[in-house]
Sequence to fold (185 residues):
Amino acid sequence: MTYENDIAKVLVSEEEIAGAVKRIAKQMEEDFKCSDKKVLFLCTLKGAVVFLADLMKNFNLPAEIDFIKVSSYASGTESSGIISLKSGPDLNDLSEYNVVVIEDILDTGNTLSWLLNHVKNTMNAHSVKLCALFNKPDRRQKEVKIDYQGFIIPDEFIVGYGLDYDEMYRNLPYVGVLKPEVYNK
Ligand code: PRP
Fold:
């Protein structure tokens, strides 16, 4: 059994992703090289871990990492807009950090608008920026400012490079469009 038969087409290749990761890491270095605060990459679970791993290796300034898991009480493929924190980072107070929230995809914006507000106003981060590898603007319900963006993508069902369908396909090294017969089974 392989994944390849389930993928209709490659939307973003490994090489294109690697190029975007390098570009974003350089942009971040420019933004943070003169700051006297520490950089914290705050990675949302689970989808962004692949992106985080590649990004942090390309970022040539001191940085810490941590993880946060939020639930949006999704029903099927639709997000409900009701957000809760399932697990937070080790630190409760982020006032000594320039926090970069690392996301795989910005979709409706419900999760991120809640999360960015939480990091800034509840966890008191010195600064908060959003880094999202993929952006689906056609799906937006809440406005969210993206500071670092990889690709604007159409509203298609994509998997790979961390993105899942039913917890599968996260380990594909590229991002592909899933064949409808896979999720219409
Ligand atoms: C995805 C994605 C974002 C969120 C974006 O996570 O990683 O966190 O949904 O959606 P929104 O813009 O509509 O709020 P998901 O809840 O699927 O969890 P996962 O990363 O563990 O797959």
